[in-house]
């Protein structure tokens, strides 16, 4: 950005002596050099990008991580931090030069403590998100970050990408759920910012520099996260509507009716759910007829299940009177609620089974989502007649996963040749509507150059200045974001 960051003129010096020193830090069994053994760490989750590395190293403590980074700085070896490797923009895999070391943080997986009075949990970066959710629940609390990949993604990766998920409407992104971080910087120093404070106005907010930075400024090794009281009840409904505009009107009504109790509001096009039922026939939508759009909404309640159900039923009844929706299913059990959420969570997998596709993770002002979908759909259909659009996402916070699949009868390899043109239409439209081309996935390698079209020169210069100041040798996850 504003000129490529250059690697130190000394160049990498990752010979056998370097590897031996790595083994001395983390133990011989935690320095992986065989190509077959490294393979799972070198290819991104989508299987679209494969890099190479000097080695994969697996520290077990923050001190070991710091010693490794200091060694890499001395030897001028690039460092690629990696958590669960579930990213979608190739932000946790190395390039193909074979000069980098992948630092896998999966062994930093301890829950260091729970403070019930302060409503916080302190965890290491390699903790699986689902394990943190379970630990919070066992303590009678809620950690609300929820993603489709929660069984395999790590909190370090969630923070490095400022992950969003299905509960942003009520609780915010990963950044909003984090009070403090512990970081190994590019020089191998440890910054202990593990403060469980909700107010700390003592200078630049360094925490927020590292959250969302995709490991380009340093490695997050631990974090203090916010906890919330467990809701007494959660109720879920699936509703069918005629248009995204009707969904926006339903969102406004739901916020008026349920206030902070509204914790999920997911928009899904009919084609999105058609793919799910096509490739997972055991799943059924269960409404009386098909609708152009669907919304999955959830209410969390601090009083009782009866109170929550009453709120939801009142909402559905009022929405039907206003002719905002055509039909609705209110889950009558936990199993039925999980089945409804499963429809939403299987969209990405169903589209992958259908064939190659072009992903977009965009956000636009909530009030303009219907207009964005209408105009962008038309532009794509004009340019690629028959293109099939898989539109779904977090309507309550303005984040759409606006994906494109090949027209019927068009081979994947032929369709994917149009990826750049499809991206240009979608991203230009997003920018025109005052949006962002990356809402929650980050930039990684995939969008590193693309973002230059949409950020101002002033913003790019400031970002580059921060990178240069904190990582002057450009060794931390080089080639990502900047």
UniProtKB/TrEMBL annotation:
Keywords: FAD, Flavoprotein. Belongs to the FAD-binding oxidoreductase/transferase type 4 family. The lineage of its organism: Bacteria, Pseudomonadati, Pseudomonadota, Betaproteobacteria, Burkholderiales. Its cofactor is FAD. Residues 49-230 form the FAD-binding PCMH-type domain. PANTHER family: BLL6224 PROTEIN, D-2-HYDROXYGLUTARATE DEHYDROGENASE, MITOCHONDRIAL. GO terms for biological process: respiratory electron transport chain. This is D-lactate dehydrogenase (Cytochrome). One of its GO terms (molecular function) is catalytic activity. The keyword rRNA-binding does not apply. The keyword Cell cycle does not apply.
